[in-house]
Design goal:
The chain is mainly α and about 110 residues long. The protein has one domain (about 5-100). The chain has 5 helices and no strands. This is Stage VI sporulation protein F.
């Protein structure tokens, strides 16, 4: 196992942060496929436009690039979460939920049981 969160983990994280069941693995697969297609055809701006339409987020491409740069250059997930909290882009509860998903201990499934 890679130790990385699965699509199911990420869908559960989204549902937890939003406080309602709005995401499934199938929806996430479709979103990822469409995001890849938008990026492949129009680059980063196409991807950002797609994400903005999907979320109705009132941000522009420069703001999205800024958030991505914070995460990219933060030096790790914990520092990225701290930086996003300081900038009030996420709250403490959201940061804790993201952190717990990133550090979730995986257990192996037993075959035949």
């Amino acid at each position: 196992m890679s130790g990385k969160p699965s699509k199911k983990d990420f869908a559960n994280l989204i549902n937890s942060v939003l406080g309602q069941d709005v995401m499934t693995e199938q929806k996430l697969d479709r979103i990822l496929h469409e995001a890849k297609r938008a990026h492949d055809t129009r680059g980063s701006d196409g991807l950002f436009d797609y994400l903005r339409r999907l979320t109705n987020a009132p941000v522009d491409n420069d703001q999205i690039r800024g958030i991505a740069d914070v995460v990219k250059h933060s030096g790790g997930p914990e520092r990225a979460l701290e930086s996003l909290k300081k900038q009030k882009l996420i709250n403490e509860r959201q940061a804790k939920q993201i952190n717990s998903t990133l550090h979730k201990k995986r257990t192996k499934r037993r075959r035949g049981r």
